[in-house]
Amino acid sequence: MSTSNATIYLKAEQNVEVQTPEVCVKDIGKLTCSDPHVLAKAKSLRLWQFQEGARKRQIISILRVIEEIEKACPGASVENLGETDVLVEWIDVDRHKGFVQWCKLAFVSLVSFFGTAFTIMAFHNDIGINDVFSKLYEMVTGLPSDGYGVLELSYSVGLAVGIIVFFNHIGGRRLTKDPTPIEVEMRIYEEDVNKALIATADREGKTIDVS
Question: For residues 210 and 64, is the Cβ–Cβ distance under 8 A?
Answer without folding.
Answer: yes
